[in-house]
Amino acid sequence: MAGESTDQPPVQAALAALDRAQPQTVYARALRTMVYARLPSPQYAARLAAEVAWLVQQQGANGGWGYGPTHPITLQNRTWTDNSNSQLALVALRDASEAGAAVPQVVWQKARFYWRRGQNADGGWGYDPPGLSPGTVRIRPNSYGAMSAAGAASLFILADKSAEAQVPPASRPLATEPATRTAASPEQSDLEKAGKWLADNYSVQKMPKWVWGESWLYYYHYCLARTADTGGWRTIGEHDWYAEMAGTLLARQLKDGSWPDPEGGAADNADDRKDAPIRTSLALMALLEGGKGLLIHKLEVPETHDVDPRDAAVVTRWLSSALKRPLTWQRLPPSAAKQQLCEAPILYLHADAKMVLTEGLSGTIRDFVLQGGTVLVQSDAADPDLGDRLQGYFLKLLPEYRAARLSGDHPVYDLRYKIPPAGRPECIGVGDYFRTRVFIVTSDLSGAWHRGAHETGAHAFHFAANLALYATDTALPTGRLPSTRRPRKGAEPRRWLALARVKHAGDWDTCPLATPRLGEVLAAAVSVGLRETDPQDLSKDVPPDVPLLWMTGSVPPNLGQAERQRLRSYLTSGGMLFVDSAAGRKEFADAAAATLREMFGPDSLRPLDANAPLLTGAFGGGIGSDVRKVAYNRAVAADQPAPEGPELSCVQINGRIAVIFSPYGVTCPAEGNPTYGCLGLSVNDARRLGANVVLYAALRRSAADDPKR
Q1: How many distinct structural domains can be found in the chain?
Q2: pLDDT for res 303
Q3: CB atoms within 10 A of CB 443
Q4: C-alpha 527: how far from its chain's center?
Q5: pTM over 0.70
Q6: Measuring CA to CA, which residue among 111, 3, 113, 16 is closest to residue 56?
Q7: What is the spatial distance between Cα 506 and Cα 497, in angstroms, rounded to a whole number?
Q8: Residue 109 counted as domain residue
C-alpha cells in the first residue's frame, strides 16, 4: 500500500511475524487478510484462502461480524455483531476476492441485509445494529462519524458486488440495452442519506457525534478516507476533505514519526506506548487511502443517465493493482472550475442522445485538452450514429485537430497489454498527427468496468491500462493533492519580443501553448514578454521586421520552390529560422534537413559548435542559459543512449548563424504537456534552449538595425 518492496529486511521480518501469529479476533484476521491480498507471491494464495474461510465462518446469521470465537464479548453472547468488526471483515473479503480468492455470493447478500437494515433513520450508523443481536442492549445506537463513514464505505463495496452479479444478455452487447442494463442500485438511496449525514456533521478535528472521548479519531479518519475514495467524492459538503484531513494529521505528527493520543494522554505511560503503533498505523492508512494518485475525473453530464455508476471506481481499483500504483477517481460536477479539471489527466464522460454540454462547459473541456488533458467518452451503443456526432462536436470544439478511427498499431492497443484485433474497442480518435487527445469509444467499456468483469471483459480493462499510460506518458499521478502548473506571477515585461511560425503543408500549428510557456520563462527570467505573430505561409515575402521564424511539425513541410525562395531571401537578408521536429518524428526531421540542403547546398547544414554563444548563453552580456549539456525525456533514453548536448545543426550565411536545426523535439516538450513517444529534450531544457534562440535572434536583429551597437 505504501510502495515498500517485500524484499526489504524489515518487511520480511514483519511478514514472518505475521505468519507465525495465531490471532483469533476478527480485527486481527481481517487486517492480516488485507496484507496477504496485497502480496504478489503465489505462496500466499493458500494462506489467503484460509483467512477467507475463517472470516466467512465468523459471519453471523444477521450478516455481520463480532469479535471472534474466543473474545470475552463473544463468549458472553455468541450472536454479538457490531459495525466496527463488520466493516473491517468486509474490506478484507473484498480485497481477497480481488486478489483471486473465492468468496461465496451469500456472504455479500447477508452483509447487504446487515448494513441496510442497520442504518439509522438519520442516514448514519452507530456501533451496534438495531435488534440484530438477540438479547443485546444497544449501548451506542446513535450515529457517529467512524461508523457512519464505515457504513457508507461498506455499501459502496456491496454496490460493486451487486454489479458483479449482473449478467449481460447473451444475444447482444450489454451496451445496446441501457434501460435494462443497470437497475438502480438498492444501496443508492441509502448512500445518498449517508452522504448527507457525513456532510451535515462534517469534521476532521474531532469525530462527529461521538461522546466517548477522542481516542479513536485516527480510526475515523481512515473510515472517512475509504468512503470518500471509493465514492469518488472530491468534497464532503463544501469541504476539501483530504486537504483538511491531511493538514490535521500532519500537524499532529510527532518528531519521532508517530502520532500522539488525540486526547492528550501522557506520552510516557505504558498504555500510550502500547497504543502508539496502532494510532500511527491508522493515521498512515488514512493518509495513504485518501492520498492515492488522482487519475480520472468522471464528469456528471447534464441530462444523461449514468447507467454504469461504479465504472470509474472499479477500473481505478483494478489499475492500482495492475500498474502497481495507488490510483483513484473523483466525480466532477459540470460547474467545476477549469483548474479543477487539470487535477486529473483523464476526463471521462458518458454520452447519449440527451447529453447537453453548455457553451461554458465546452470551453472548459477545450481548455483542459489544450492544457494536455485526455478526454475519454463512452458513446451509447444504442445510438449507432452518436459516435459520428460526437466526432463532429469535438472537431468543432478543437478545430486544430483531426479525427480518424484508431489504427491497430495505436499505443492504446498494445502499450502494456497486447489486445488482439477481435478484442480491440472500437474508437474514434481526435488529436494532432502524433498524439490523440480525445477517445470516443463506441464499444462497451463502461459496462465491463461497472460489473468488474476482469476476466470476461479483460480487454476493456487492458484498454484502460494502456490509455492511462498513454495519457500520462507513463508518468502516472502520485498523489491526490495536485502539483498542477500555474502561471507564474512575475514582474510585468518591460519589452516584448516576437516570433512567427512558418505555415507549411504539414501540422505547422502543433503544440499551440509552446510559445506562451516560453513567454512565461522569459518573463520570469528577464522581464521580457513573447508574442507569436501571424503565421507566415510564404505565399508572399516575410516582413523584414520579423526577427525569428519557427518551423515545426511532425509531417514533412513540403515547401514549394517559390516558398523556398522567399524563405531563402528572408534569411540572406538577415532573418533567422529555428527548425525542430516537434515530437522528434524522423520523417519531419529528414524532410526539413533535405529542404535546407537543397536551399543552401549539400554541405550547408553542419553541427553547431559546442562553444557557440547561442549554447553557452554568452551573448547580450550573458543573458542566455548554458545549454551545452541537456537532459532528454524518457522516450529518448528508452530508444537509444541519449546524447549529452542538444544535437543542433546550423546553416551560416556570411559568417552568421541563419538557421538552427534540431532533429529532437523542442516545441512539444516546451509546451510541457504529456505526449507518449515524444523524442525530445526535457521540459526545462527545451524551454531554456527555446528562450536562448528567441533572445539570440532578437538581440542580433537589434544590433543589425542599430550600427552603433
Answers
A1: 2
A2: 77
A3: 20
A4: 34
A5: yes
A6: 111
A7: 26
A8: no
